[in-house]
Design brief:
Elements (H helix, E strand, L loop, with lengths): L18 H17 L1 H14 L1 H10 L1 H21 L5 H27 L3 H14 L6 H11 L1 H26 L8 H25 E2 L2 H14 L1 H22 L5 H38 L10 E2 L2
Parallel strand pairs: 1-2
Helix pairs in contact: 2-6, 2-12, 3-5, 3-8, 4-5, 5-12, 6-7, 6-8, 6-9, 6-12, 8-9, 9-10, 11-12
Length: about 300
């Protein structure tokens, strides 16, 4: 069974066109999000608890970025501490350590929103897909059912993601330090990172809807990320905006004490609200993209074969 409809085939049920339809889609998203707000928070919390081992691994590997940022922050933090009348190297060390932890948490949560956390992301994608399609879902049982049903493939996705993250980050910082033609490679890596991220919008939905091998899931997610590139680019921008606006505002605060309080609030918001908002946004948009380009998926209880 082919995955994609032919480019010249008749549009299927649910495919919408035109500015008015896009406006209706936006209205539907906010209607569903507000209606399911507390359920989304509950599912997101369950997802993050199930993802604790993956989050710890992400915090560990994100140290490659954190050390680069904290090296830059040291001078700023030193000046800020002195402005508050403190001249103690131990205080500076403590603030740098706190900044390192906050940066690691931020990167881990951002990676969770963009790439997922392996097995728990299958259950997460399934529940949010049901919400996006206005279908009933038994949150607790079906979350764990989909998590364990897709465990073998999704754990490999997580391993591949962490290896890719380490390689891409190291390569990026290496080429940043290079001049001339080699310096251009950092932009190539950024483009690859962007496409790889957009692929993750579809990897888990494909796995929960179709009986495919891991390689086929990656291949088909790549095709969907390219075919619907404008939509995926806007979706990526939306997810990044959700997770970057509050940190950006936090960096503009005048004092370190205010910044620490603000970042504490941000982490709480990220755990309980922002993660669910971005996760549901991804589910809502990708569900509509897959309606347009993928063969009928109305009966998803029995996964279909894809060749």
């Amino acid at each position: 069974m082919p995955l994609f409809k032919g480019a010249l085939s008749k549009e299927g049920k649910g495919v919408e066109k035109g500015e008015s339809e896009r406006k209706r889609a936006s209205a539907l998203f906010f209607e569903l999000y507000t209606r399911k707000f507390w359920e989304i928070i509950k599912v997101s919390f369950m997802f993050l608890v199930a993802s604790i081992p993956a989050l710890l691994v992400m915090m560990f590997v994100s140290g490659q970025i954190s050390v680069q940022i904290t090296n830059v922050l040291k001078e700023y933090l030193d000046a800020a501490i002195k402005m508050e009348g403190v001249n103690d190297h131990g205080v500076l060390t403590a603030y740098v350590s706190i900044a390192d932890v906050i940066i690691r948490i931020f990167i881990a949560l951002l990676l969770t929103a963009l790439w997922g956390t392996g097995p728990a992301s299958a259950g997460y994608a399934y529940i949010f897909r049901c919400y996006a399609r206005e279908e009933h879902a038994f949150t607790w049982s079906e979350f764990w059912e989909q998590t364990f049903k897709n465990f073998k493939q999704t754990i490999w996705i997580f391993v591949i993601d962490m290896l890719a993250f380490v390689l891409l980050v190291n390569a990026f910082f290496f080429y940043v330090s290079q001049g001339g033609a080699f310096g251009i490679m950092k932009y190539v890596i950024m483009c690859f990172f962007m496409v790889y991220t957009m692929m993750h919008f579809y990897i888990y939905p494909i796995l929960i809807n179709f009986k495919v091998k891991l390689g086929e899931a990656f291949k088909n997610s790549l095709l969907l990320s390219i075919i619907a590139l404008p939509v995926n680019f806007l979706l990526l921008a939306g997810v990044l905006a959700i997770h970057f606006v509050m940190p950006y505002l936090g960096m503009t605060l005048p004092s370190l004490t205010a910044s620490l309080g603000y970042w504490t609030i941000y982490i709480g918001m990220a755990l309980f609200i922002l993660q669910g908002l971005s996760g549901f946004l991804v589910a809502f948009v990708t569900n509509r993209v897959m309606k347009k380009y993928v063969l009928d998926m109305e009966k998803t209880e029995d996964k279909k074969e894809l060749y």
